[in-house]
Design brief:
Elements: E1 2-11, E2 14-24, E3 29-33, H1 40-47, E4 55-60, E5 63-64, H2 69-75, E6 76-79, H3 91-101, H4 106-119, H5 135-147, E7 153-157, H6 165-180, E8 185-190, H7 193-199, E9 202-207, E10 210-216, H8 217-224, E11 227-234, H9 239-246, E12 251-257, E13 260-266, H10 272-281, E14 286-292, H11 296-304
This protein binds adenosine-5'-triphosphate (ATP).
Residues 11, 16, 34, 36-42, 81, 158, 191 line the site of adenosine-5'-triphosphate.
């Protein structure tokens, strides 16, 4: 397990990160979500031993990584936000260079380069110089470089910012496969709520340098509400039906307009069969039924009063 305990970073007395507690269990996929300037990059720079914390601890299986950075560096892959590639070199040559940083060479390095190029889908372009690559391909190569030494933990800092949808999907799929198939532990920072919702088992929400909420998606969503919003589309509207619906156990509020009905009900109330039965009694049909569940975006809005992207 990797854990950060009361991690803080101040730049010239100005808070960037304060009292961050965070852990990654082996094999987990964890999201670190927050708007620009929230402190995500600073947090992961400290976790990856690139930046010294002002205070706090980071432990890898109980061992202090600030005092002994070697252990974590061996098993950690970091994909930084800024591209760290040589534009004049080919994809292959870039990977060869990064491999040498990890002290890899010979057959082991060749094998690893082949494998990571396959993972990110760049085998066909390995001989091309990086300056001819699209933004998305460069990001994929950046990921490949972080994977060369087969890290057990992979930290990605907003890897999909500013790239085309196809490359974005490719990256998300790659990260998912690394986690689900290879068991790589993932820490994924993003300000795209839907990516974190899609990829991560657990989420930390960060704002102004602090963790303001943490938990599984379900736990975070439960902060928001104990209610479900159900929307019905009806074949016709009948006031008696609306009045009748209000009497159903678990229903808190009913709003009817034209052929639509919005029902606020206690979370988890299983109402569909009862509503269908009731509509039948009133000689009406339910044409459409759906439950609107709140998103993590709504949770962020609820906690901060702001949207994630401004
Ligand atoms: N080297 C530095 N010197 C001074 N201030 C810094 C430095 N690095 C970061 N900061 C400040 O710390 C705060 C957190 O920045 P950080 O880059 O960690 O946020 P972030 O959540 O990663 O945002 P982004 O999504 O824009 O990268 C910001 O106010 C930033 O200006």
């Amino acid at each position: 397990m990797l854990e950060a305990i009361r991690l803080s970073k101040f730049f010239k007395g100005k808070k960037a990160v304060q009292d961050v507690n965070l852990y990654l269990d082996n094999g987990e996929s964890v999201g670190l979500l927050g708007p620009n300037g929230a402190g995500k990059s600073t947090t992961i720079s400290m976790i990856s031993t690139l930046l010294k914390p002002t205070s706090g601890e980071i432990k890898l299986n109980g061992v202090n990584t600030i005092e002994k950075p070697g252990e974590i560096r061996k098993i950690l892959g970091v994909v930084p936000q800024e591209l760290a590639l040589y534009q004049e070199l080919s994809a292959y040559e870039n990977l060869k260079f990064f491999g040498s940083i990890y002290k890899m060479k010979g057959k082991e390095l060749e094998k690893s380069i082949r494998k990571v190029l396959e993972i990110v889908g760049l085998e066909d372009r390995q001989k091309d110089v990086v300056k001819t690559f699209s933004g998305g391909m460069k990001r994929r190569l950046n990921i490949a470089a972080a994977l060369l030494h087969q890290p057990q933990i992979l930290i990605l800092d907003e890897p999909t910012v500013g790239i085309d949808p196809q490359s974005r999907n490719h990256i998300l799929e790659t990260v998912r496969r690394l986690n689900e198939k290879d068991g790589t532990t993932i820490l994924y920072t993003s300000h795209y709520m839907e990516e974190v919702e899609q990829l991560c088992d657990r989420v930390y929400i960060m704002d102004h340098g602090e963790i303001i909420a943490a938990g599984t998606k379900a736990e975070l969503l439960s902060i928001l509400s104990t209610e479900d919003t159900i929307k019905l589309e009806l074949s016709r509207m009948d006031e008696a039906f609306a009045e009748h619906v209000k009497t159903i156990d678990g229903i808190r509020k009913v709003e009817a307009s034209h052929l639509q009905m919005k029902i606020i009900a206690k979370k988890g109330s299983n109402l569909i069969s009862e509503l269908v039965h009731l509509a039948d009694q009133h000689h009406m049909q339910i044409i459409n039924f759906h439950t609107e569940t709140p998103s993590l975006e709504d949770v962020f809005l609820h906690l901060t009063g702001r949207t994630l992207r401004n």
